[in-house]
Task: structure prediction
Amino acid sequence: MCVESITENPSIKKIIFGAGCFWGVESTFGHVHGVVNTVCGYAGGHVINPTYKQVCDGHTGHAEVVLVEYDTSIISFDDLMEVFWHCHDPTTKDRQGPDIGSQYRSAIYCFTPQQQAAACLSRERTEQSGRFKSAIVTEILPAVQFYPAEEYHQRYFEKHGIL
Result:
């Protein structure tokens, strides 16, 4: 899937978050008022159309991510960023909880220079707040390519009665 707009509604924007295993990240953002859609997938790597197995093997360079579409008339970008900082530990490199590997890295892939600047400012504010004892290692980069994960990963917790 290219980075072309998924929707025609000008108040709907998108951002890609990597914060560990995409199942939990998707569930977290899927319950946020103002988020209109979430899609588990892969971003930040060098292999075209990677599979889950390839990403887990750690040789594609991709992170497990969630494409989040949100309505700016309901939720601000800053509020979305707060959810991101609270849903994982952005100070651990290539790890979230028991999941270890570069595919679990903390990452934000932005669709506009304004998003990237706002994400960097949010990271700086969060780091200066003292909320975390260690430095934030979240990478903030332009979104280049997003590949949706296999269907069985979409809404995984919902499909399995978790949460």
